[in-house]
Amino acid sequence: MKNVVVIGAGPAGILAAIAAKTINNNVLILEKNEKIGKKLYITGKGRCNITNYSPIEDFFPMINSNSKFMYSALYNYTNMDILNLLESYGLKYKVERGNRVFPYSDKSSDVIKTFNKILLDLNIKVKLNEDIRYIEKQDDVFRIYGKTNKYESDFLVIATGGISYPATGSTGAGHKFAKNFGHSVTKLNPSLVPMEIKSNYLKELQGVSLKNIELAVKVDDNIICKEFGELVFTHFGLSGPIVLKASNSVPENKNNIIISIDLKPKLDLETLDNRIQRDFAKYSNKNIENALDDLLIKKLIPVVLKESKINCFKKVNQITREERLRLINTIKNLKFELVGLRPIKEAIITKGGISVREINPKTMESKKIENLYFAGEVIDIDAMTGGYNLQIAYSTGYAAGKSIKEKSNE
């Protein structure tokens, strides 16, 4: 009988435990939080974006770091595999825009309940509120020390997450454990994180949500990234899906980075000009601030007019051609100076982690320490939003667990 310990009850740790379980071994998950899957609760704005429904070959362009490393793991445990597992235990799911998969109930808690049901069914033990302090290996046995308890195992999986959202338990402990075993950890940076901007209008724009707009990141007037979709203004700057995606393109240690928002990306300059002229003809006797309601969100109008250097109270029939062209330019290029990215603790995922060069990509086993495995965000792999990062967690966890199962049956 072999003992398997998995540190971390997130998606990677849970799948590692499930895949490792056989009648020939005992599997124990050690979790520092009071419940499993704490970070899963907040994914997809609390709905849990389980995975993405796209073909597996479409996943690789969405992986920002070390996509080739994921080839074997993703093909050996696919998005369909995790969905079939959850569905076999009663979870219904649905596919939404961008092929993002959510529980049919829109409740992340239902996904957690399903994982709990699977663990119980397979007789996988979970020890909650267990904060591991130190790990060593002696005589082919891992000795794992918690605050008051000590554990021993033949196989060890470290699936403790990165350092984003530390309130969910991702505090970088896994990186520390890996370093103690001689592993390298690449630089840790925020990935998929909101942006701080410099603007006199933040108080007026706070809470404003924009859809079907285009955001561009410009460095020295060169566009390095464009994203189309939704964003929201916050008290510090910008957040939302396209902001998080664009954050990965922001270079380090660069000044003069401009965030440009095209409020009407589907209209070229001429079409937008014709549209505005029609509105001007319709509202010719109104103040300009009351003549743009058909075109722009109410809260945006004063900001756009100030940036266009147009008096809000000026009558539409008095607006000059030069002013109208300035207005068009502002609508197509509303600019904000980037101050920087928000702290890593606010990032959706960590960029960086345990070097993939020191991990077997087929099994997730350490190349340095036999029977030591890594899974999930603790590894130097990160992807775009849309369920891709969770699938990476499932697939790497499964690869580790499958390898343990095969070894324990030898």
From TrEMBL:
Protein name, UniProt field: NAD(P)/FAD-dependent oxidoreductase
